[in-house]
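User: These chains co-purify. Model them together.
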Amino acid sequence: AQSVTQPDIHITVSEGASLELRCNYSYGATPYLFWYVQSPGQGLQLLLKYFSGDTLVQGIKGFEAEFKRSQSSFNLRKPSVHWSDAAEYFCAVDEEDTPLVFGKGTRLSVIA
Amino acid sequence: SQTIHQWPATLVQPVGSPLSLECTVEGTSNPNLYWYRQAAGRGLQLLFYSVGIGQISSEVPQNLSASRPQDRQFILSSKKLLLSDSGFYLCAWSDLLPPPAGTSTDTQYFGPGTRLTVL
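Assistant: Joint model of the two components:
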């Protein structure tokens, strides 16, 4: 069965700084990959997804993610973080015909 | 456009009491439906999913159950709540696209969640 690892439980960045959230998966073939964001007390919102094609995926709110098959990674990036980006971020993996598997999440704090 | 509703938004229940959380989806037909629980520090745990009316798959054995009485309605229930049932419950839906060339995708869209506190 596939698994998803988000090695950073909590990250703090300064407003305006760049951001990279890590996600690694274990799965034999190329999975479908997702990033979701959850603001406090809210549901999850889809940021972006990768199914095939260009390995650099653009999402909403200025986020992007790059699929690297050789590293089994799908890291989320943003060049300049805004205070409103403070939230919890979840990476998820989909194997064909099975439900999504989520990582445990990375909480992002943004300081002035 | 599609929307997903959950209620109640918050709920405080005593141990041993019953539970019923409701989730409905608008703007789509025959969606896949999911219940997740989110406990502090444990990420999202898939509890149940359903691919059609009356079809429920359980991912984790526990004292919770799910039902799908209508196409776009998904209910999470318990006869007797435990302290460990406290958490944030999320409903999600997806349109599983038909498989061209043997592939399928499963983009899930989430509701606003229900915060359950069992005392």
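The CA atoms of residues 15 and 56 of chain B lie 26 Å apart.
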